Amino acid sequence: MRSRLNNYYLAGNTPKIPPLMLPATPLKKVKQEMSQEYHVTSLVVHAAPKAVSQVETQIRALIGAEIHAVTEAGKFVITLEGETQRSILDNVEAINAIEGVLNSSLIYHQVDAEQEEQAEKIHQP
Known about the structure:
Layout: H1 4-10, H2 27-35, E1 37-47, H3 52-60, E2 65-70, E3 75-82, H4 85-97, E4 101-113, H5 114-123
């Protein structure tokens, strides 16, 4: 079964982006909206007990990372904050790459859009 894009090219059309494939929102506007988001994520990280100190030091060095609890058994409760989903994912990947980290589990993720908050403030009596 051929896709619509394949049919488009097989019909002799020039290799341009078909009108249906154009972004619905201009890219400049999308970038502006992305920068107006605020992400908060919480994780539970399990590290080898012998590596707790090293893991704690490296997590504290990450921008937007905060450690709320650490046990001697190697359990960490962490929050990550950032303006983009990419910054959160980069920190999660960095945590998983730390030597001594055995596992990390995403517990919570919230996205606040500043535009929505500003609109609510304007419409409040």
